Batch of 4 targets.
Target 1
Amino acid sequence: MDFVPHDDKTVTEMLKVIGVNKIEDLFEDIPKDLIINGLNLPEGLSEPDVLKKLKELGEKNTIYTNSFLGAGCYFHYIPTLVDFVISRSEFYTSYTPYQAEASQGYLQAIYEYQSVISRLTQMDVANASMYDGSTALAEAAIMASIITGKNQVIALEGIHPEYIDVVKTYCWGQNVTIKIVPVEELKNELNQETAGVLFQSPNFFGDIEDVLILAKKIKEKSPNCLVIQCMTDPTCLGILKPPGETEVDIFVAEGQSFGISPSFGGPGLGIFATRKKFLRKIPGRLVGKTKEIDGEREGFLLTLQAREQHIRREKASSNICTNQALCSLSALIYLVSLGKTGLREIATQNFQKAHYVKNKLKEIPGYEILNTKPTYNEFILRCPNIDSLIQECKKLNLLPPLPLSKYYPEMKNVALVCVTESNSRESIEKFIKALELANNNKEGCD
Amino acid sequence: MEYEFPDELKYLQTHEWVRIEDNIATVGITDYAQHQLGDIVYVELPEIGTTLKKGVNVAEIESVKAVGELMMPLSGKIIEVNTGLADNPESVNSSPYGTGWMVKIEIINNSEIDELLSVEAYKEIVKTEKK
């Protein structure tokens, strides 16, 4: 429908019907001292002036041609098909699909999204998505607490520090305590009061855990506690063992890597998948497929809504009343564009390119890779001079890797490096050059 | 609307019914309660062997539009749950006092039985609620 602004006549008529004289009368309940008089805003501009202004603002951005930054937000190639499909106004501007009779297209898209996530993870059921990886992890922690009736959650070191902050915030509101422990101490920390164990693999430092063994160990010690895996770049599922083939109970991930551009760090997509036995405790929306009462036609609808807050009220396991529909659509189109073999190819390229850089680093003096476990597309690197490395990268128009001191002040001169399939051979060679130059500058910058 | 409330049962203000045979209490929700909830689609039952106090929630009853709770009418141990409800939750609607029963409790405190309502007292409560 087109946007039709109200003309003066319509406005007057509406005001008359509801019994007020002017629009301002509608706001007279607001205390006078709360009303702001005169915002410091510039005069309105004409359309060409607005465009010029926005273009100038946009030019202030530094657009790096290549990135070696990951840490939760990744540069992957996005097939043109993704933006083409999600830009269709039927998807782009549509409202939340409460009305099945008016929203079959979107409901089917969400259903297909749930199906691809379920197939990719080999978990029984995936929800319609959550805000991002961190909130999905927090919801999983709360869900574990509700299922087990316990209120202690253990998080293994190596989870994205910002995710931990979000989990703490959610847990605080629900009276769930969270303890962060190194993987070696996990066994001593597990007990009958443990609701769940959260871990990230590949973790924030790039380490891949042996999830099969880790999950088994947790279950042996604490059979009722829930094993919750998260990851920040699920493209690795193209080559790694899916969580469904392990004893993981809830799998969550940041889905930004699936066809969503980094865009200064958002929006993201919270992937959430679990086992059938927990179906009625899943937070958020679920779309199901059904049949007409009198007939054979199939249709899609929001289902199992008695789990949700609008029905279960304060007893619901979550207060999320939405999903990331457009972002989940991006993920769906991304995954179906690639297909099974395409995703495996992407994952293989990520792995190989990152390992090419890792191998090259062995030849450059002054650098040391600190990972002791296998890695995917990220690894941590001790540098002779991280500030100099950042400068050299910028000079070569490369978005530099993350200095870990941002989150861990004690980790000086350690960089979290990310190499994806989008890094060309040329950009990788530039990066290696930056690494060499930064080493040569060591003396001068110390 | 006329509801069925068998004379031989005991009742709770929160719309549970209790059938006492020896020291075993069978519990379900009343005809009035199932009407209020509408089509029942799922009943979450407790684990057998759990001992619970009178007044705590023991089961969740999910209909297409609401969620209701089953309260422990008496303190005791759960000795049996109606596993048939997993496949036929609608029997709570069609036979609330028969195949729609939910849990069996081994009574540990007989004096609590006196606190349950008689059919007459329960009918009065329903009458007031309907107004």
Target 2
Amino acid sequence: MSDEEEASPAALADLARAGFLMARQSLMQVNFEVHHVLDRSGYLRDLFDDRVAAGQSPLPQPEHGMAYGNREAPPSPGQTPRETLSAAAHGVGLVVGTYVGALPQGMQRRRRGSDLPVALRVDDRSSDSWVFQGTAWPNPTFIYESGQKFEGLILIQEKTTGRSSFQGRAIAELIAEVSKIAAEQKAPLLSVQGPVQLPARPDDGEWPVPSVVAVRFAMALRRAGTERRLKLSEAFAEFAGKRGYGFWRADIRPGHRQGNWYLVRPHDRSRAEQYAARARWNDEEPRCSLPITFVGPARVGSTSAIMSYLREFPELGVLACSIISLDDLAFIHLQLAVNRLPAGGTQEFESDLRRRVRSAGGNDMEGRTSAPQELLPEILPLVTGNGNGKPGLDKLTNLTDRAGDYQVLTGPTMLVRHEGDDRIPLWFSWRAAGTDDGLAAPLIAFMDALAVTGLAPACGGAKQVRDQPNLDYLVCRDIGESTLRGRGKITLPRHVLRQFADTRPEVIGPRISTNLEDAWRVELSRYALPGGVEVSVAWMEYRLNNSTTLM
Amino acid sequence: MEFIHTRKVSELVATAGSVPRIPAQRGDTEGMGPEPVQSPRMPSLVQAIRTVPVPGAPPPLSREGAAVGLAFLDMALRQNHIRRLTERLSFVEHGVASRTTEVDVRLSLLDPSQREASHVFQRLSSRSARDPEQEQPATPTIWVPVTRISRLSVSPIDVVDAAGNKLPRLTQYETSRLLASGLYRLLKGILSSRPESRQPSNVSRLLREERARWLLQAALLALLTERSRPLGDIEQDEHRILRPPVAGASDAHDCRELVMSVLRQYEPQLESYANLLDVALDNYLLVTALDMSKDDHLLSYDAPVHLSEQTRAARRAGVWSRSTSARYRIQYLARIPASLRSYHVVAETEPGVHIEAMSLVTDVDEANATELSADLRALADRRRRHKPGRQTEARLLELELQSALGRLSELLRSRRWDASQAGLEMTEAALRSSNRLAELYLSAESLVNEPERLEAPLLSNPTLTADDLDQAADEIEAQQLGSDFSVENDQESSRAHAYWRRTSPRSSDGEHTSVTCTLTLRDATGVRPGSVIAFAVAVAATIYLVGALLAGSPWPYGRSANSSSNADAVVAVLLLVPGFLYTRLELPMRHTILGHLRRQSRRLAHLSIASAVGASAAIATDVHDYALGGMLALTTALPLLAAAILHRRIVKHRDLVPARLSAPRWLLSPAVKPVPTDAVFQSTGWHHE
């Protein structure tokens, strides 16, 4: 964040650190890897297991490292990612990771002596798992103080009874609004995530619903006073109020932390329904989705430029989104709803899509990469089924100005799958200091701990997806001083509660959490990690004892 | 430890140059003619670009060196490997102090990438291939930045370890070359991340044209590696190169203009880069080689402290105004890096002088207090405009109100605990509104913690008015609630130490925390001023006795005053007796602190001698009658009067008041007058606001 005020030494040190990480790279760029995959339990774990097994990482392999799923040779730069985001929604899984260090050989070849980002490599050997690898310029001045941010949560629909195109369109409209307000306030957007868990009510006697149609966002606001915070909140409250959405703000009172929410406006169901009816967003529910990820230097206004361009196609729905900045790169991931499939079904759609992507990318077979201003006009009419959409020139110029140097990663088309409501969430977090394996080892140990405590079936594979624990959300980032902090949410099938006599969350929640936390510690003790790892498991986000201020 | 406040310097430079701060220009500035300098953020760089010859070949910047330079800068700023900073001050003479800084370094707190950078540096800097088996050094070393020293400080620095061995350290030339490489890479990285770098624009031209890039590299290299840096007036720079009068642009000029226009255009984006450049320019990094086989290291180095100008001026003005204090008051002003966790000050004095009290005041909560008072004012304003019935607005206001009052209550609590620890009372009367608001918050806590209640318990409280909020904001500022206070509680001795620690290093704002350490010293030799008073009385008595004997009357001050026919003998008595008695007085040397503490005694003794001399002179010159009587009366009365005044003042100054410890205003009642200081010390490059 390049603000006018004097930066703290930590912020200056962060800038120097960003420069250092960049200068270490042969290209002065950050290597990244994005996976668009069919969501399945244990994908991330398999990925790490493979990397570890490849012997590239100094991580000691645990004796019973169980790996299941298809073990295709990872097109890896040979190490586990540093900062990582993993999210899953509607049957689509996303893994984003950034790496530092030398450019892998394959990429060095593709660089062709240019200073520009290396041509993207797409690994699409399997129809439901595409892996994109590339490099991008980071923005080293994208510095924010983790303590000074504005967080909010807007609930669109509390109970999804009838699914239609409403949910997707409402999310698209909401992300556009959030990013627009952030850009107007010159506040860097730190993260946007949807769908998310509803703020928990401790006295409910019910397990919180792990995932609802809602969007949670955080933006950096340095030295923002009451006045600026109030103006921002009022803008969001007005937007939510008109549509009957619920609006929560992160509780900023002393003694409260991440996961504590303050209700500003309750959800008004009848008004939300009226709004949907008025907007005539009640068409058929989309059956397919197209994951799309924009990657580029993190900067203020890029999400807004992309979203305002997308909103030129009002019928476009966004089923889920994960926007985050990792290692000074912005990753804007959207699950675009495919409104209408051609007669030939998914296959025809896919081949049409490939054709369009190729033509936009200058027929570059190897690097199916393209700037958003070239690719979006090609594919959006196809996705929305509206061939007549003609976005205004100003939106295109704005897109080129703010996000013209972004890369777009698209595909594959996936079927929309809805998780059942019979799942319960568990939050977990860890902090690992002074180790490069601060991500893989704790995560693998956590998965093992799930199996040990009986919360996950001992062996995966044949079982139904719905019977397995699933990683809904995970973010792991470097919070400076060689400390990696990760936090995530895992959902478990409700039937795991059957083993307990009393299933009330306030009784069983702490018990499961403590049990799992202990097992996790035991599993972790098998890895000799230098700095030690602090772990925490809780059934509500704010109960995580090493709760980070970063999302 | 000496640091220069970077923003301060740049401001100084900006004001010195009287360059108005013009907002950055956006958009295309290509093809512009000569224009006034509009880039006050990086004046040194701008001047270097203007004056350094455009190179014809790439300047020698190292790519690997860039990573090392930036890693060193990161370590020096973050100081994650520094556990504690101890400053040992020794006050031996009046106005003279020495300081030894001790740094506790733990190598295992360095993160892997920082270690790697140090190793890369080791590899880069070795000129000969080392046979790994034969020439393995007995103790492997690692290069680690220990501190930043102001460039204005010229004192040579020896860094010694706990055993007293001197440690090798990098020359400033070596470090600055690394920094130049690093800062160039960073600048290039920032510019490359702009979307315009992919489109036809100034920045893409700069990245493409190698001569312009070389110029930028040469300018950074010159700035960082040369001993001096430009601090002068850039507006009136004689070397300014203007567009040549003849038509046809020169290549060199184009290069300069291109670089300058890019710097101007991206001024807002380069804000933090400019801050970082200032840090690199204003400070030397002290990089030492530490033994890697040991984890914890205790390093120390001498760093000079200077008597501040204000002390000297105050001393000249107030020689007589307060020459009778029985306490010697010293202030030490320091700035410690905002990332530092733990800080100790140890003070020592000469034997015979005890440190009666030592206090430490820091502005650690200043940013929070300023923010809080601004928030309270904004809330007062909102509250005045708020109309009942607007539920959403009420909810939002309530959240902000609770947050602000919660922070206020926390601030008051920590100040109250500070006061209680020091055994003092807060000035509650001056904090009436703040206290009331904090009480309101605490009493409503059970209501406000209900997450789903759509109520506004504080906002709907009729006793909480907008004026209360405004008053509380005023009180926070007026009572300096942003400054903490701690006082040393040990037994009084010639050594004292004060300790301070930060609760959360990440949350700190600004680059430094200002520390004011105040010491009051007291004479502990056991020599009472009584002996000087007795001396003065003895001199007065001698003069009286001589006068009375000469006059032959118990009242020698009238007409009967008479001089002796044997004036020589009388003068001898008048001079010898006080002279002998004076030698028996144990008066300390003038320039010592003890001498300063007992300067009243010394002055009294001198006055007494002068009286004796005056009386002798009057008798020797054969003055008669009233003149002699008057002279004798004067010379008798003066020592007695001065002795009485001294006695009275000593009695008066025996109590200990917070004012003497430079306590913030929340500890001082408004009636207390500021107590003057005998000496104020500060580091080089320390700008006191």
Target 3
Amino acid sequence: MVPARSAEPPPRIVSIWFPDWPVTAAGFGADVTAAVMGANRVIARTAAAAAEGVVIGHRRRQAQRRCPHATLVDRDIDRDAREFEPVVRGIAELSPRLDVVEPGWISLLARGPARYFGGDQALVDRLSEQLIEAITAAGTPATAVGIGVADGRFASSVAARLAARRVDALIVEPGASPTFCADLPIGWLQTLGECNAELIELFGRLGLRRLGDLAALSATDVLGRFGHPGVHAHRLASGADVRPTSTTDPAPERRLDHVLDAPAAQSSAVVFIAKQLADELAGTLAADGRVCTRLVVVLESEHGERSERSWYRSAGLSAAAMVERVRWQLDAWINLPRGSDQELTGGVALVRLVPDEVRADDGMQLGLWGGQSEADRQAARAIARLTTLTSDDAVTVPVWHGGRLPADRYRWVPAAMVDLDGRARAVSGAGTGSGPTGPWPGTLPSPSPATVFTEPHPAELLDEHGEAVRVSARGMLSGRPAILLLLTGDEATGWQRGRPRRIAAWAGPWPIEERWWEPGRQRRLARFQVVTDDGDGFLVVAEHRRWWISARYD
Amino acid sequence: MELAVELPSELSALAERVAPLALAGERTLPVAAAFAELFPERGLVRGRTLACAGQAATSLALALAAPAVAAGSWLATIDVPTIGLDAASEFGIPLERVVAVRAEAARWPDVVAAAADGFDLLIARVPAELSPSAMRKVATRLRQRDVVMLVLGDPGALSCDGVLDADDVEWVGLGNGHGHLQHRRLVVEASGRRLHGRRRCRLALPG
């Protein structure tokens, strides 16, 4: 049986894929054993770590067992985006019309640039030269990269991933995408986040092991048996991945912009404006059952500099996802190297969101690990409701920040500014790398304190003779800590001493010297763990000859 | 008429197998095995408010919440800005499902009610100045929405279904000028109108 094909062949697309981008963004070269963790599982690792047997999906413990000397760092999706920016700029010099799918993954239409450079092979050669140049200029460690050219986004993405395992690029001849896809294992549909695991498993049990097996079935049979997700899979397997009749040009009135009368110098102000626009855009699109898959974000400064970038997400961009893209783009713009073209010199005066590709929302909002649960959706609704009840900055979610003191390790950011759908896979903190292999040598070993004071409490630590304990520059103590006193009151009215508490056990000092190179922000302090005779544990800090209680083990 | 005699017993056996077990499972959130003996239902019954008290109250609340959040529930903390996220993550709470809310005392009942719509678990501090009638409304709402609220500190006018007291803490690992905190042994005592008398358990907690 001949599989159904849409009359028009899908556009020819170049995909550029950096395997394990998060680990490259974290600054590890291929020869260093390192891995990036999200939700306590490996989500990316270097070639050296892979050679030692670290596999994506491993838990922290498993990875450490295979490779005890590997450096494990936590995922930071903002860092991934920031480090990816030079690569995007480099490619944009060759072909300005490119889509950033996610940090480490770019796709662009091949037709124009291929014609200009004289064929797919010439284009790919130019691209890889440009990539190497951009990467070395940015100082990012050298890394493998895959370039794939094929008809259609799906085939091209697969080609790029296959190419990353070889030396040269993988070019699928025009019209050959269906045959290219036919030989691929069916699991690719899941790898690229197009189908969920249960459907793929079901295909496998039914004996459909290759994409060609699925493509050979008739589309109507597939629709009858598997519904819309099945048809979507069938269409991709047939090498025709454009959703027919859905990718129409958006009406011009859909573009939304906001001109700021007083240019915003603070990035949070721009992000809040972007949030209003994104809410409105996603709202109007949702009202007629559509979702935006490619969004062009345009930012302009009061001095006329411009930043324009197009963002793609096959599952569709939610309002929060749009805001996150704006935040990445703004971050990249602010951090442009001095003297480069379009460098930001003034406040932002214009924010514009253009939904460049819109399709019918068929309810297939699958995340990489199987998408949202009902609990996630309920929580997202409750967060929106809570934000309107209180204020934007009263509803916050934790974001990993890093540091040696418990209070420094996480920042609370307004929930409205974070993409909660994407968050499930952009986890910021699980297992925060305390301990010798973690990225923050000098943090205290677990357990961590359950109560961390945002403002440390003033205290006094006395020795047996009632004298205040002093810590010398070399970390020597003037006496053994014997009594802990909490202070109440404030600087102006004088401190009142609380009830003296005898110290049953203590250890320290663990000194920290941070940012000694930066006069305004440097810190020198020493940490102590103290347990009083009634069993309360405290983390006590000496700084500027004063004592503070920074956390409590309660 | 042998059939008529046998059927009822078979039916009742079947009814026993079908009815209560499924419901009890639906109505509780999982807890770690060490805590199971504190609760007659072997889990946190949805819709209940429990006060966590004693020296290790915060850690106890985090440890109780962890298995449910790990299983997919969301956790909101209300007016607990001091929650230690490293500790939470060490207990196994995935931080991407943690949301912190600050609320003024006057808004507190509304905020709890809104949070009850979307979160399975709340860890909250109760403002002292609220009236008993406002608190009764909060309690009713929590019961209706099947939310478990763990109260830190003084529950004030809010009536709790049970009190979990984590006391007699003994730290292990810290010496006199050497070592570091490793874990602690403590006794958790559960009491309250819904917990059928007093139950105690002795356990070791990290953090």
Target 4
Amino acid sequence: MSLKIKQDQARFRAIVRGRIRQGLKKYIQHGELLGKKGKDFVTIPIPAIDIPHFRFGERQQGGVGQGEGEPGDPLSPQQGSEDGAGQAGQGEGQHILEVEVTLEELADILGEELELPRIAPRGKDRIVATRVKYTGISPSGPESLRHFKRTYKQALRRQIATGTYNWFRPVVVPVREDRRYRTWKPVAIPDTNAVILYMMDVSGSMGDEQKDVVRTESFWIDTWLRRHYPGLEVRFIVHDAVAREVDRETFFHTRESGGTMISSAYKLCREIIEQDYSGGGWNVYPFHFSDGDNWSTDDTRLCVEILREGILPVVNLFCYGQVDSPYGSGQFIKDLREQLAGTENVALSEIADRDAIYGSIKTFLGKGR
Amino acid sequence: MASRVLPAQLHDMRRQIEAHARGYGLDFWDVVFEVLGFDEMNMVAAYGGFPNRYPHWRFGMEYERLAKGYEYGLSKIYEMVVNNDPSYAYLLESNMDVDQKLVMAHVFGHVDFFKNNFMFQHTNRKMMDQMANHATRVRRYQDRFGVEVVEEFVDRCLSLENLVDYHSPFVKRRASPSAAEDERRVATGFRSGREYMAGYINPPELLAAEQRRLDDEAARERKLPEQPEQDVILFLLEHAPLKPWEHDVLSIIREEAYYFAPQGQTKIMNEGWATYWHSRIMTEKALRPEEVVDYADHHSGTLATQPGQVNPYKLGVELWRDIEERWDRGRFGKEFEECDSLEERRHWDKKLGQGRQKLFEVRRHYNDVTFIDEFLTPEFCSQQRLFGFGYSDKHQRWEIATREFRKVKEKLLHQLTNFGQPLIMVEDGNFENRGELQLLHRHDGVDLKVDYARDTLRHLQSMWHRPVNLATKVEGRGVLMRFDGKDHTDRRLDK
């Protein structure tokens, strides 16, 4: 049986995804994801929309609690934000839950918050991005969509329930309340003609921790993308002073060292795009991760040139993530920022540590770009 | 929602528990128990206990939260009961027998409270039907004017939902109009010494016109509202230029706000009361030996308190027990209060045995505010390890601020007074003689959340159609926040 409330739920989700009622967007609160609770724990964000009221500012109000501790002891983070616990009957507060989940589930959850930005229908087998689909039955709607069978079923049900059904003369007459109508909603069909190119700096200046952060981040991006965009093509490039294409396994497990020539990766990336994904039939998304410590300013200049001439014109979005490293100067992202200012399809993100991974993924794939 | 007849086994249980409850002197309406699967349960809970509400995304949001919580095994709704005559209560299909018993006992406690507590004497006891009517009305408007339009308006109404006078069902605040009538100025027309000329100098129609003008003037001079009006929604309903359907939707929101209000105002008492009774009924009568462990587990789950939060179940039941003990042993009144010997106080026992009687008296005549105000004692406060917390600017974090009885109690009462909502009232419906609306925030030491206040003003303006103003204080200074339909402005008030 489908529940009445599913309609409200669908509507809520549509609002959260920004499909309808954009005005409410600023009231949406997202919880934090990929929490710090060890390996298997994550906090699950349950988006909530907070309708504005006249209410007290929390900080001045404070509250009352029960438990151990001396004056001056800190409360744990959630407690403070609990707005006036237990007073209003329908508790508002923060909607954050903490649970153990599997990778697939997590990818699902991520899916509600992320999307491939700037994706465009491309390619020969171009697919319409949205179409209308009949999804359910509702007690109200236009007469042209009346569901004949369900209406009669409802009438029959009512007649039996009220005892007016005559077994010997089984005439079923629907009244107004029995009428059932088809309902629909627009369904988005993700475009499958897309390719992701991952590039990773594996040079000596990238310490184990930095590589780890990069792998975690690209792993999550990869997990999520593969789940939500089936048929997606993925290519992997690692580079130090020279770049080479590798398979997924190698990409996630290789350990190398050497100097850094970022241009080598970009050259290879450009070649791959030209060879396999040219002609406007593809959505192309290169991701590059590095510690931002390039060999020379000349090379950086070369990188910018390759990006400008060869890569940016043909890709949907170029993402560059830079890990903080104790050795590197971290100059590269600054250079990119300067040189590529005003370019729309570039996303730059600095990743300070593991905790910043989620924020960085959101910078790349967050909605509403 | 499928309505199911209670299975025989549950039916027997219910009769047994009901008999125990009556035996203790609980006095409740007939209760209709329904068994629901978890998704239906979540739905009904999201609807606030009702099977039928008007369509709105907010219920979907609540449902999503409950459903996710249930799926991931974090939370589960055990019990739900609707203040209605007959009362409706829901049992979760998958619960163990011992849980069902516990829930039933708990529910009878709630229904007794609904029926007898004074806060509920003005609530609509046929709210089940009323809610369904509201749903139909809102649906009809959605069919006629469009889903988006109506939903958007409901959002705006909800934003003002707390601007009602929670005490108004009990008080008649409107001054009777007679006083104003007395001072009515009477048109006299021109003075004429000659009576036979009166009809000529002051023709009756001229006099009537003059009278009308005077009356109009008086009406304009009279302040609207005469007294600051806390029921802002009512004021809007009476004076704002709303379309008929908007008027109806706003009145629906207001009616539902008033229906839910007393439940919020007696949360601690009500949950405590129900917990007190399920614990008595279960431990003294209904529990079978093999069920003890499960019962204890679930009972303690209900009372578990997150460090640093107040759990109304826990605080409530402890207070009720404390009251019972104090009145059983006579630990109250002048003699007890003035006793200085700690030793004597600790062993104080007059063997009065008035505990039970006192409980029933308190459950009739108190609400959370008066309950806490009267029965929260310093001993109780330190036994229960209550503390007040606040935000420390120095450390940029939330901290335990105090364990001092007086301050803790003050904070708790502040949280409960007027629902823990700021007191806001309509001061003037014709502010500066420009048809603007002026609201007044009775500042009690805590500022409003400014960004929220601005957005709420925006919604208010969309109903009033003329600029709206709110007089409040920010960081100790008087401020008049204003929204004129386009821009927000702040103006410093004197001082």
